Amino acid sequence: MKIYLHWDMEGASGIFTREHVWFWEEGARKSVREEGRQLLIADINSAVAAALDAGADSVIVCDTHTGGGNILLDRMLPDPRVVYHAKSRDAQGRLMPGLDETVDGLLLMGHHAKAETQGEFLPHTWMLDWADFQINGTSVGETGIEACFAGHWNVPPIMAQGTEAVCREAEELFPGIVTAGVKHGESHDRCAGLDPDSARLLTGHKVREAVEKARAGRFSPYKPALPMTVTVRMKTEEAADKSALKPAVHRVDELTVEGKIDRQCDVVKWILE
C-alpha cells in the first residue's frame, strides 16, 4: 500500500500564531519561523511513523506550504520506504510530485479551512486574492482542490488533519473521511488547541485508522463531473483584471472569473499558468 501525505502548515500541531506560518511578512522573527518549522517536522515524522506502523509499504511526503521549503531532509525520519518532496512542484512544474495511479490514499495534513470561514485561523484558499473557489457550483477549500487533482488518478482522500473547521469542511465534502482536529481558531491570527504531544497521539491514531480503512477499500476518489466549470470570486477587481488576461479565463463579472476544464488535474492550471 502506498499513501501520500500532503502537508500544509497552518494546521500543524502546536502552531498557534500567524507569525509561525506567515513568516514572509514584515516583522516576522526568524526564531519564531524556526520554531514553526520544528513543530511541522515533528508532526510529519510522527505521522509517517504511524503510517508505517499501520502497514503502509510506501509513503510519499510533500511539503506544500508556500510552495515548500519548510522541511529539512536531514531532520526527517530516515526510512527507505519514505520519499520526501521538499517542494510542491517537481522539476517539470507538476503539482504534488509522485502522485499517480499507484497511490492508494491521500492524506491532507496540517490543513486549514477555506477563505471566509468565520472564526477560522488564517482561512484562505490557495491564493490570498481568492475569496471563493467553486467546482461545478460547489464551494471548496484547498482540501477540495487537492482531492480533485488526485481524483484524476483515482486516488481517494482518506484523512484530513488540522483545524476543527477544516475537518468539518472535509467531512461535508468527503463523507466517511477520517479527521483529526488538533486546534480551533480564536481569531483570524490566533488559535488554540491540544499540546503538540497530545495532538500527535491523536493524529497517529487517526492515520492508522485511515490506512486500515483504505486497505479495506472504504474510500472513493473525488471526481467532479467533466467537463468541470471552475469559478473563482476574487477579493478585488484588480485581481480579477489580472486573471482575466490569461487565455483560458473567462470574465463573469467585476470580481468573478471562470474556466471550463476537461481534466480534474487541471483544476487550478487554467488560472495559475
Question: What report would you give on this structure?
Answer:
- This protein is of the alpha/beta class and 273 residues long.
- The chain has a single domain, classed as 3-Layer(aba) Sandwich (Rossmann fold), CATH 3.40.50.10780.
- Helices cover 29% and strands 24% of the residues.
- Strands 3-2-1-4-7-8-9 form a seven-stranded mixed β-sheet, with helices on both faces. Strands 6-5-10-12-11 form a five-stranded antiparallel β-sheet.
- The longest helix is centred in the first third of the chain and has 24 residues.
- The chain is globular, with a radius of gyration of 18 Å.
Estimated share of beta-strand residues:
15-25%
Shape: globular
Q: What is the H/E string? A: EHHEEEEEHEHEEHEHEEH
How many domains make up the 3D coordinates?
A: 1
> At CATH's second level, what is the architecture?
3-Layer(aba) Sandwich
In spatial order, strands of the major sheet run 3-2-1-4-7-8-9
Helix segment tally: 7
